[in-house]
Amino acid sequence: MAELLSYKAPARVNLIGEHTDYTGGLVMPMAIGFGTVATLTPREDGIGTFRSENYGETVEVVISTLERAPKGHWSDYPVGVLWSLTQAGFAFPGFDMTLKGDVPLGAGLSSSASIEVATAMALLGLIGASMPLPELANACRRAENQYVGAKSGIMDQFIVAGGVKERAMLLDTRSLEFELLPLPSAARIVICNSMVRHAVSSAGEYGSRRDEIEAGQAILQRVLGIELLRDATLEDLAKCKGEMSPEVAARCKHVITENARVRAAREALRKGDLAEFGRIMIEAHASFRDDFAASCAEVDTLVEIAQKQPGCLGARITGGGFGGCTVNLVETAHAEAFREAVRAEYEKATGKLADCFICEATDGALALAAKEAQ
Ligand code: GAF
Asked: In which domain of life is the source organism classified (predicted)?
């Protein structure tokens, strides 16, 4: 029987540092227990097939003639990874790959990076190759940016590939240096899904925010020679405000203050000061809602409900915005009751039933033993 290769890549939640990762800024995500399993059997005829167990569909490609041709279909993600790896010089003899995932879609938990990284690991496994973490993350990001056409940053692919159990990761998205931060046991991370779907697409709202940030960054560069927003201060922004629309200035203010909040959150974690960490999360949500204007009514309601619950230290939107999930820091003793109360109150307020999960930080992508893969 043909050899079966199987890899699992997790999803992620970002604790703080939103929309900072495409201007060289700081983020603090962790990998979580949802994920995608890519299982592959080799073939030798130059054909690659991708089957999605979730969609019940199979897509076939001729590897040697693969060109950039996104279809707006789930298969763009794995085919994009194959394209990206062939562009990077890897050659594949052929394969049948099956993808199966349980990451909630459109929830801001990065189902796309999970598919990309699982696919990349399986393809590299097929030819006995491996890539250092930054290169693997960048290859998957290229699939998303250049093949799928979504202008995301590097955060998701990096944490999905490189997450570490029981640790959050402070990642500098310019240097790709990172620090692993232990999560104190006194509090739990609870994710609540507003059930409002979001999409990271270039044409959509994520892309329009990114365009605004790039417009602001270009002005900072022209006026002050500052290349990346990550190096700008609020004083720099004030000097350029006359040249920017109020919207662009507000979006840049969010990014500048968010980088400062990630640094402050790291200090709070290092000191074990969870109350301070939670306070910073609440500030981050206000900045995302008011300056970045990328929240939505349901997510704001979810955050407000969370903040009123006993033991809730912090609550904010996580991911690209315009729907999706909140991430909450809740004292361990209150976490179960928090989950139930938030669900009940959110249903009363919106008629929607939020899925809420108490999460652990997990390892990033890894090979599965044959038994686990079945
Ligand atoms: C999405 C993107 F894919 C990330 O790169 C990041 O920009 C995030 O939104 C916002 O912080 O997940």
From this structure: Bacteria
What confidence tens digit (pLDDT) does each residue in 218-268 have?
999 999 999 999 999 999 999 999 999 999 999 999 999 999 999 999 999
Tell me: ipTM over 0.85: yes
CA pair distance 9, 370, nearest whole angstrom: 16
User: Given phi > 0 = left and psi -120 to 50 = alpha, else beta, which region is 280?
Assistant: alpha
Distance 109 CA to ligand 1 centre (A): 10
Cβ burial 161-183 (10 Å sphere, 16+ → b, else e): bbbbeebbbbbbbeebebeebeb
Task: Say how many Å lie between the CA of residue 134 and the centre of ligand 1.
Answer: 17
What gap in Å lies between CA 185 and CA 274, rounded to an integer? 10
Measuring from each residue's beta carbon to the nearest atom of ligand 1, which residues come in under 6 Å? 14, 18-19, 21-22, 110, 152-153, 155-156, 200, 319-320
Give me the architecture of the 5-182 domain, per CATH. Answer: 2-Layer Sandwich (3.30)
Q: Which of 20, 117, 152 to mutate for ligand 1's pocket (most ligand atoms within 8 Å of CB)?
A: 152
Domain segments of the chain as ranges? 5-182
| C-alpha 114 to ligand 1 mean position (Å) | 13
